[in-house]
Design goal:
Layout: H1 2-36, H2 40-52, H3 56-70, H4 75-89, H5 93-106, H6 113-126, H7 136-151, H8 158-186, H9 189-202, H10 209-225, H11 229-249, H12 256-283
Keywords: Cell outer membrane, Membrane, Signal
Pfam families: YfiO
Protein name: Beta-barrel assembly machine subunit BamD
């Protein structure tokens, strides 16, 4: 009985798979016929239908095939606009960016030009990778979104554009922080201290400002520890000053106790160095 049921299931699954494959082949054959058609109006009607039904791959192919026939006609602008979105909805952001850009250049007075300017910037945001990778597209998204805001200060998209800029800046901030952390992990403490300080300078309003300052202090403390004896006093004095700056700037921070420990240890080390220097002077 169990074998019979299993055999029946295999037949049903196989039949379903064959049916689906048959439907796909039928659709592919039908689309091929549409693409080969010489009836421009029919092809345009089908392209519009595919677009409405979210069959963007089919719509894209038909729109591109129709380009030479509709260029310069009343249909051209709307078709160009929809072709840009065909690429966008297929997540081909590279081509989408190019079509949105060209739309604004080809139809500068169009009521859709402002929207396409925004969408061009947005495609760069969509191409922005995770923080560890190259952030060229992130920077382009920021630049184009800011240009959009400057050109269209009254646009309903301004708030969204500002939000995208904030998200992009957060990603750049994370990348800079990860770079600083990498220097620290590799034992390049001076480079780590400089980079952590740079993150704080570049993002002064960051919610993680106290973390960046703490990491900078800790990095410079370790750098001072590893320095030649004749350089240590000067560098520990800097650590001491940075600890005081942290206390003044980040009152109530969760890193305050750690900074206090570093400051106490630094003060003791400074005293030891000064005592050793005093002994050497007395012996001369």
């Amino acid at each position: 009985m169990k074998k019979l049921v299993l055999f029946s299931l295999v037949i049903i699954v196989g039949f379903t798979a064959c049916s689906r494959k048959g439907v796909r082949l039928q659709r592919s054959h039908r689309f091929s016929q549409i693409l080969k058609s010489k009836d421009i109006d029919y092809k345009f009607k089908m392209a519009e239908q595919f677009y409405v039904n979210k069959k963007y791959n089919f719509a894209q192919q038909l729109f591109e095939d129709l380009f030479p026939y509709v260029k310069g006609t009343d249909r051209y602008e709307d078709m160009y606009y929809k072709l840009a979105y065909c690429y966008y909805y297929q997540k081909d952001y590279l081509n989408a960016e190019n079509y949105f850009k060209t739309f604004t250049e080809t139809f500068p007075s169009s009521v859709k030009s402002e929207e396409c300017e925004y969408m061009r910037a947005y495609t760069f945001y969509k191409q922005s990778p995770k923080p560890e990778l190259d952030q060229t597209n992130t920077n382009k998204a920021i630049g184009l979104m800011q240009a959009f805001i400057n050109m269209h200060p009254g646009s309903p998209k301004v708030n969204e554009a500002n939000h995208i800029i904030d998200l992009c800046r957060e990603k750049l901030e994370t990348k800079d922080y990860l770079n600083a952390q990498l220097y620290y992990n590799l034992g390049y403490y001076k480079a780590a201290a400089i980079t952590f300080s740079g993150v704080l300078d570049n993002y002064p309003d960051s919610k993680n400002g106290d973390l960046y300052k703490y990491q900078a202090v800790l990095s410079y403390f370790k750098y001072a520890e590893m320095s030649y004896p004749d350089k240590q006093l000067e560098r520990y004095e800097k650590v001491k000053a940075d600890c005081s700056e942290f206390m003044d700037r980040f009152q109530g921070s969760k890193y305050t106790n750690e900074i206090q420990k570093i400051k106490t240890e630094t003060n003791n080390l400074i005293k030891n160095i000064q005592n050793e220097q005093a002994k050497k002077t007395a012996q001369r």
